[in-house]
Amino acid sequence: MGLLSKRCEYGLRAVLFLVAQREHRPYVPIREISETLELSFHFLTKILQQLTEHGLLTSYRGPTGGVALARDPRTVTVLDLILCLEGPELFQTCVLGLEGCGDRKPCPLHAAWIDQRKALKDVFAQTSLAEIGKETLLAGMRLR
User: Fold this and answer.
1) CATH number of the domain encompassing residue 115
2) d(CA 144, CA 139)
3) Which long-range contacts (CB under 8 A, 24 or more apart) does 16-22 make?
4) Assigned domain for 1 exists
5) In total, how many domains does the chain have?
6) Average model confidence (pLDDT) across the chain
7) DSSP assignment, residue 87?
8) Is residue 46 part of a domain?
9) Long-range contacts for 53-58 (Cβ within 8 Å, ≥24 apart)?
10) pTM of the shown model
11) Can you tell me the distance from the alpha carbon of 91 to that of 111, in angstroms, rounded to the nearest whole number?
């Protein structure tokens, strides 16, 4: 199991696919993204709708329609995407999922997780979708 939820993983993979397609065509059909990345069409549709509602994507109906990035990928960070899909909980909750964990009643990993959580948030805030997209293309990484 990864650190990010399936929602975030799928959203990030789909957006990176859009980053890769951006120079060739602005709008990509959701069905194509779903099939290429081997993701559930209905789940992906909900994720992309959420990103559209938050202004990260735009959609267009019709035969040449689909979804596209609404902003330059150099101006969108991984943190922006995570906050749109999950909210701030990843950076606020107990790493063990314990109720009431905090400075007054810490879990055994609380002190270590606070530092790691901040470092992770900083990395996500400093990493643009354009950077990840470029690295993905240069390294020939697969998104599925």
Assistant:
1) 1.10.10.10
2) 14
3) 16/129, 16/132, 16/133, 16/136, 16/143, 17/143, 18/57, 18/67, 18/68, 18/69, 19/69, 19/73, 19/129, 19/130, 19/132, 19/133, 20/133, 20/136, 20/137, 22/68, 22/69, 22/73
4) no
5) 1
6) 89
7) G
8) yes
9) 54/84, 56/15, 56/80, 56/81, 56/84, 57/15, 57/18
10) 0.85
11) 13
Structure tokens at 50: 């959420």
Whether the per-residue pLDDT at 53 is higher than 90: the answer is yes
- pLDDT attached to residue 140: 56
Identify the pLDDT of residue 103.
85
CA distances from 139 to 38, 136, 142 (A): 20, 5, 9
The dihedral built from the CA positions of residue 68, 70, 73 and 76, taken in this order, carries a sign that is: negative
- One-letter amino acid of 89: E
Alpha-carbon gap, residue 24 to 19, rounded angstroms:
10
The CB-based long-range contact list for 56-60 (8 Å cut-off, 24+ gap) reads 56/15, 56/80, 56/81, 56/84, 57/15, 57/18, 59/27, 60/27
Length of the chain, in residues: 144
Q: What percentage of the chain exceeds 70 in pLDDT?
A: 92
Please state the rounded mean pLDDT for residues 111-137.
Answer: 88
Residue 138 has pLDDT above 60, yes or no: no
